Amino acid sequence: xxxxxxxxxxxxxxxxxxxxxxxxxxxxxxxxxxxxxxxxxxxxxxxxxxxxxxxxxxxxxxxxxxxxxxxxxxxxxxxxxxxxxxxxxxxxxxxxxxxxxxxxxxxxxxxxxxxxxxxxxxxxxxxxxxxxxxxxxxxxxxxxxxxxxxxxxxxxxxxxxxxxxxxxxxxxxxxxxxxxxxxxxxxxxxxxxxxxxxxxxxxxxxxxxxxxxxxxxxxxxxxxxxxxxxxxxxxxxxxxxxxxxxxxxxxxxxxxxxxxxxxxxxxxxxxxxxxxxxxxxxxxxxxxxxxxxxxxxxxxxxxxxxxxxxxxxxxxxxxxxxxxxxxxxxxxxxxxxxxxxxxxxxxxxxxxxxxxx
Amino acid sequence: xxxxxxxxxxxxxxxxxxxxxxxxxxxxxxxxxxxxxxxxxxxxxxxxxxxxxxxxxxxxxxxxxxxxxxxxxxxxxxxxxxxxxxxxxxxxxxxxxxxxxxxxxxxxxxxxxxxxxxxxxxxxxxxxxxxxxxxxxxxxxxxxxxxxxxxxxxxxxxxxxxxxxxxxxxxxxxxxxxxxxxxxxxxxxxxxxxxxxxxxxxxxxxxxxxxxxxxxxxxxxxxxxxxxxxxxxxxxxxxxxxxxxxxxxxxxxxxxxxxxxxxxxxxxxxxxxxxxxxxxxxxxxxxxxxxxxxxxxxxxxxxxxxxxxxxxxxxx
Lengths: 357, 316
Ligand SMILES: Nc1ncnc2c1ncn2[C@@H]1O[C@H](COP(=O)(O)OP(=O)(O)O)[C@@H](O)[C@H]1O
Ligand SMILES: [Mg+2]
Description:
The structure holds 2 protein chains of 2 kinds. Chain A is of the alpha/beta class. Chain A contains 12 helices and 15 strands. Chain A has 2 domains: 6-231, P-loop containing nucleotide triphosphate hydrolases (Rossmann fold), CATH 3.40.50; 237-340, no CATH class. In chain A, the strands form 3 sheets. A 6-stranded mixed sheet of chain A has the order 7-8-9-4-10-11, sandwiched between helices. In chain A, strands 1, 2, 3, 5 and 6 form a 5-stranded antiparallel sheet that branches. In chain A, helix 3 (101-111) crosses helix 4 and helix 4 packs across helix 5. Chain A is elongated, with a radius of gyration of 25 Å. The model of chain B is unreliable at 1-44 (pLDDT under 50). Chains A and B meet through helix 2, helix 3 and helix 4 of A and helix 1, helix 2 and helix 6 of B. Adenosine-5'-diphosphate is lined by residues 21, 24, 26, 44, 46-52 of chain A. Magnesium ion binds next to helix 1 of chain A.
């Protein structure tokens, strides 16, 4: 990797990480950069390679090619030193059904060579407490519900103080209450300074608990950054419902926007309303020169005003309405569709979420 | 290459250049100390003993393990009851040493081992050894043990040690059950050995222990084979069945006179060779041959298991 990259600031860093199963590229040359202290959402539809990436990162599977560092150390060379500092839930919980929840945690804790046996009982107790399983501690895991197993899996990740938590779909099988609890738990862990790397195929979940996210699609990393950065990449759109679609397009073009006809509204009446929409210029992303205002702006009052607004890369929606009305366009509906991450991800992954490939 | 990591706060862990196996300055961990201080955490490194203890706990908390030990214990009990209820056995009929048990109840244990070693013992060892890695993979706990991190080599060693302990337990179950039922149903007195000498009760117990040790050693090679097969699959039942089938194949090959050249290399070749331990004086030749053969199997299949497991992708 390039010398001088701020590796020490990154909890996970990969370069060209690739994992191929006989014929299938499960992970295809991804460059992950998970900052320390982040709650990092690893988002992607089922089968996009999230779990495989996690397995490779934790040394369960060997990478086909590429490099990776976890907590600042080369992996898998320093597995032995790094893994005790990492708590993990990988592809769902797994336990010995014939042992109690507490006995399972004892068992897995003995496997951690650095875990002091003197505090084992207390640490198991505290981990169970943290996920709300104290009551069921003595029950055989066979008798646990899926949600309880999921909690026990998270408790296992919390058995020791961790610098990094890797949680693969931690809310699978949890009821809404459990989901909220996991979210709160993740937040409190992050507040203590733990980096949390959480995979999910649910956009809403990532939006609610993460500071950063990366999007996987068919083994490739298609976007990565803070949530705001990711939102910003996809600009908001305005949508105008009007019978004067041509006039509306002219006005939008004059404002420096790139109008497109968005078809008919769903509840179209017999008055022939049309929909016109356009992407709003974006204040974080570099502007596309093709929609720069200066080429098309006429020196009239309205546009001069818009011009100033556009120059600092924002355009007020009300200014658009004023311009439309001023130009005699009959505005029957006007909406600004905030750039939801969802639009962005659907655009990135080429399909809705929850879709297996 | 990635730049070396120099900006991580030094209090967050043991410095890289200090091998973590070297005990760090000992910070005592008072029980109940919940101050999750990374320094305390990394101040000591547990050897494999705790994991082995945990492995044995898991093994012996399973009902399956006890069911198998009970089934093994039932073998000498059934033999003793059958002999007690029937007319005196003519010398030389039935399983070896069967006629001795009416002289000395302790020999029910030996008879039980003779009857168990061709099938019942390999069956149970096959289940345990085949389950070692594949069972964890099947449950999914293998990935959690490995990221704990248990260490692949350490886990393999602990798993093998667990299987070996079961070999001891299985043999002991047969021997002890045999002794108990024998003492209950038959007199305990001097017994005539194969060499024609007569030994007392103390000597009988010693000989029984020797036979039990011989049988335990006999099973170590099969355990190593099972461990290796267990690293090949995520389906424990498959590994168990394959191990058991291999033990039967080995015994069948050992019975084919055309394959005499192969016989000394079959792990089951010396399984019934403990008659020498029941002579006066004890002939140690077969014990040594058996031990060497088993050690060879442990070395070869241990190495194969290592070769397979050390780099295996754990995708279960
Ligand atoms: N053991 C395996 N052998 C072959 N292909 C696999 C294996 N595990 C996963 N894959 C494939 O790799 C791709 C990524 O899977 P996975 O990492 O589990 O996705 P995710 O966790 O994002 O749902 C999938 O297409 C899957 O079919
Ligand atoms: Mg997955």
